[in-house]
Specification:
Helix content: 25-40%
Shape: globular
Largest sheet: 6 strands, antiparallel
Order of helices and strands: HHEHEEEEHEEEEHHEEHH
Number of strands: 11
Strand content: 25-35%
CATH topology of the largest domain: D-amino Acid Aminotransferase, Chain A, domain 1
Strand order of the largest sheet: 1-6-2-3-4-5
Distance between the termini: 19 Å
């Protein structure tokens, strides 16, 4: 089952696709060598357990423009500044979870007031076709490095996210929503071509200041409670489809 939730394996799968490969932040297995390489290449990075979810064990590393490196731990709600990169790496090794990690290019997916956000696309396979049933914007609290811990008020309809928090016009919002759905559906088709028993996915998407779409990761057991906060009918629809699937395997 490990490959089902491996961020590195999913990235390798998407990299083979002629369209999806342009929507992936650079991601590598974390070693001391890749740590140094990625720090030299990108202004900020994420260090994540390869097989974990819900924001657990995640770190952010920021280069401070000649003034050292800031390491932020999501679990410990702790930020430390190190003048030497080796010291930052040692601190990470001391705090990390005991499992393989990836190092990933940071994407500046922020609202106009500089709050981190992403979009969860909830998809289900119905009669062989992947449908994007719901899109939810997740806006982190100020200074948070992940959206997983956002409060109820942090969940917003994507239309609100695009128009009110990102400054899109109504037309631009509709187009971007369609593009996000298309990328998420394409990612689902690619994943299910390898994992044929999967019938439900949550794809996490970022959109940077240039409005480019990025695929962060895929979840094989997406939480439906987020949908209930915004659309009770959709929440019940997804749970109804889940019940149909588990009662009748022909659904997928």
């Amino acid at each position: 089952m490990r490959s089902a939730i491996s961020k590195l394996a999913n990235t390798a799968l998407f990299e083979q696709h002629p369209i999806l490969k342009y929507h992936l932040p650079e991601t590598r297995l974390l070693t001391q060598e890749t740590f140094i390489y990625m720090v030299r290449k990108y202004p900020f990075l994420y260090l994540k357990p390869d097989d974990s979810c819900q924001g657990k064990g995640i770190f952010q590393l920021n280069s401070l423009q000649g003034h050292g490196f800031q390491l932020i731990s999501n679990d410990f709600q702790k930020a430390t500044v190190h003048h030497k990169l080796t010291k930052a790496f040692d601190q990470f090794l001391h705090l990390k979870m005991k499992r393989p990690y990836i190092i990933q290019q940071g994407v500046r997916s922020y609202t106009l007031n500089q709050s981190l956000f992403d979009i969860r696309v909830h998809l289900m396979r119905i009669e062989g076709d992947w449908k994007a049933l719901g899109l939810v914007g997740r806006i982190a609290e100020k200074e948070e490095i992940v959206t997983n811990t956002c409060t109820r008020k942090g969940y917003k309809p994507v239309q609100y996210l695009f128009t009110k928090l990102l400054g899109y016009t109504q037309k631009q919002s509709e187009i971007k929503k369609q593009q996000v759905s298309q990328i998420a559906r394409l990612a689902s088709f690619v994943m299910s071509s390898k994992h044929r028993t999967w019938h439900e996915l949550g794809i996490d998407i970022g959109v940077d200041h240039d409005r480019h779409i990025w695929i962060y990761e895929s979840n094989v057991t997406p939480d439906t409670r987020v949908l209930n906060l915004l659309n009770e009918k959709l929440f019940h629809k997804v749970n109804r489809l889940r019940a149909i699937y588990h009662g009748n395997k022909q659904y997928g």
